[in-house]
Here is the input.
Amino acid sequence: MSNDVQRQSAEVIFKEEIEALIANEKDPIPTGWQMSPRSVFKYIVGGKAGKTTITPKYIGANRLVEIAISTLVTDRSLLLIGEPGTAKSWLSEHLTAAINGDSTKVIQGTAGTTEESIRYSWNYALLIAKGPSMDALIKSPIYNAMESGTIARVEEISRCASEVQDALISILSEKRLAIPEISNDVPAKKGFSVIATANTRDKGVNDMSSALKRRFNIVVLPTPATLEHEIEIVKTRIEQLASNLDLNAALPDENAIESICTIFRELRDGVTLDKKQKVKTTNGVLSTAEAISLLANSMALAGGFGNGKVTSCDLASALQGAIVKDEDKDSGIWKEYLENIMKKRGGDWNELYHECSKLNKK
Here is the structure.
């Protein structure tokens, strides 16, 4: 595996695990898949394949993973819905990596995504020279997935315009892609499906139509149920990130991870962990993904400008940027939290409180 690529795809990073699962396969494999649903499940939640340890890719409710995998065995497509940072894209990527060994057939939904991104477009030089033909046609990721009987991914589908969403309806219903310019159509091979993700916090310009939603089985991915659960997720992802980035710093200790997760949960939920005191919420999402990013940034600060050990000063600097998105509103809320919650806890919180207070002074 090349070390000069900033981010490898899941099937490259976890190639050994996937190969071990395939080699130790004992269950029936659906058409178009490279391993059985049980093995896909093991790849996602962790376990053993022969002598190879399979690391957990998604830490959450196992039943939701089973439902997602079972959906993809049928002719239904899968829609993963949740707040930012609930690992929708992460789970989508790893499902396709395990099932097909290819997670790269992906469309990133934005306000600028066009219908051609879903269907096909044209090489206009060839189109002008030769007219409409298969040589001039440029296939979309969904087109390629239909031809190969594999899975395509559509990220942030709710951010796409309504005509882009509508282009998916006939494909998911008929399992065929019409090309009227050359009087042809493409039937989907067995194994074809689509995994889409949608954000409940930022729904985008256009909500999904009920007609499109009916073409999907919907799985709602919740935020981590407990502090311990969230700490486990953050710790696992930080270790993975650190192994891929040149942060030149030691991993944050358990207290640092617990402190960040506690702050994020309380500001996100609007109440302290013991449910005894209400807390004002900020404009930022403060998701688990944000906590992971914050700790990685703290490691970068410690490695680039410190002694390689994450300090309260590093955490405070990263916290300030993560929490105070709206200077007028968030700065006051953060200051109130520092004085009314963090300061009163004392003990291990003192040093972090003082560093955060220095940065948040006006």
Observations:
- The chain has 16 helices and eleven strands.
- The two ends are 48 Å apart (CA to CA).
- The chain has two domains: 10-220, 227-360.
- The CA atoms of residues 169 and 212 lie 6 Å apart.
